[in-house]
Amino acid sequence: MRKKYNKYLFLLDRFPYVLIILILCFALIFFFIFKNRIPLDFFSGAKNTQVSEEESSYSIFITSPLNDKIYNFINQVESVPIIIKSKEAEDSSYSVRVLVNDQEIKVFSSPPYEYKWVPGESGEYEIMALILDDSGEVISESNRVNFLVEYEEETEGSEIISMDVEEKKNAIIEEANFRTQNTIPPGVPIFSYKCYTPPSIDGSFEEWEKFEKFSSFEPTIKKENYTTHTDVSGIFYSCWNEDNFYFLIQVVDDVFNQSYSGNQLNKGDSITLVFDTAFEEDMQTSFYNSDDYQIDFSPGNFAGIPEESFMNWPSNAPPKGVSVASTRLTNGYIIEASIPWYNFINYTPSDGDVIGFTVSILDTDYLETTELVISSSRVFDLNNVSTLGAIALIDAGDIQTLKENGTEENQSGE
């Protein structure tokens, strides 16, 4: 006969299961009692509870610019990035109106609510945003953000230019025929002074402070990617004599990227110079011809790829006799070069010449090709010479010696 087992278990046999159930019950009780006393970021992993709480108190919130932010700009095209968050507006047909100092600057009909605003002048600003319903009534207001914009005052690199030279410059502007709308500022070419002592091509600023500088670069190609001068900007110097055109450019670039050479070098961080040596004859011409020249310059990558130049037009080969030197900076690089005039067929430089000219800085950042181009002309197209600005060659005397003598005289009190 089969042995019969007791169908009932003693409480002691059930004890492990009861213990587990009791532990779970106590754990749940403690969780619900204390969860409201523990900061929310304890569970979510958030690190900034102050921002989260402030933002959550608004149905529309400005996340950029930050309150009390100071923007130091060096030209009139730099922008303040505006970013607005609003779940209420996104989930409806409401519009978002943006005000700066109580003046409307932008109305969004749909997300994303992002805008690059150009102030145009220094000053203190307050920005706020409104949600508007279909009838234009205000549904809610955002936080108010105060920020400061300061434009750097530009000063000319050379302070020793006499009134006679200024009159000469004005005469050149009045007599020359060039596309005044393309230059920065309008109607004023870049002035390149004759150098009686050629600069050493060594990637150093040392000899260039005696010459005029140009720094008012404007975004021209893929300009939607431009934010401020800290992304990319430059200071350009030049001079000339009967043998060469010389230049130095300091580039500020937050991300340096150059891995190309030869005819591909302009895919990386680089400089492009375009000349039109028959400017007046080509005023109605937009295509390249035999008197136009595009020369690209690379600083190299300072780790195996050397600095170099390449003439993309008209020869599609390295230009002859060009010397290039570069220096790596913590926030960019310097390129210095001399270009023999014999590369420019049938052109001989002379005092008072005004020729087509644009210098452009090509910025790549983390991409495999150009992300942004800023130029010395208001508009620029690598394939359209009608977008060129202008450069004027002027003999202002031996300004290198004059500056030294003037400094000595001032120090002696004469």
What is the H-and-E element order? Answer: HHHEEEHEEEEEEHEEEEEEEEEEEEEH
Domains (count): 2
Separate helix tally: 6
Q: Please state the average pLDDT score.
A: 85
Alpha carbon gyration radius: 32 Å
How many β-strand stretches?
22
Distance between the termini: 135 Å
Could you tell me the CATH topology label of the largest domain. Answer: Immunoglobulin-like
What is the 3D shape? elongated
Q: Main sheet, how many strands, which sense, barrel?
A: 13 strands, mixed
User: What percentage of the residues does DSSP assign to strands (E)?
Assistant: 25-35%
CATH level 1 name of the largest domain: Mainly Beta
> How much helicity do the residues have?
10-25%
Describe this structure in words.
The protein is of the alpha+beta class. The chain has 2 domains: 49-151, Immunoglobulin-like (Sandwich); 163-400, Immunoglobulin-like, CATH 2.60.40. Helix content is 16%, strand content 34%. It has helices spanning 11-34, 41-44, 49-56, 87-90, 163-175, 399-412, and strands at residues 61-64, 69-73, 80-85, 95-100, 103-108, 113-117, 123-132, 138-141, 145-151, 190-194, 213-214, 218-221, 232-240, 244-253, 270-276, 292-298, 308-313, 323-329, 332-340, 354-363, 372-375, 389-394. The strands form 3 sheets. Strands 10, 11, 12, 13, 14, 15, 16, 17, 18, 19, 20, 21 and 22 form a 13-stranded mixed beta sheet that branches.
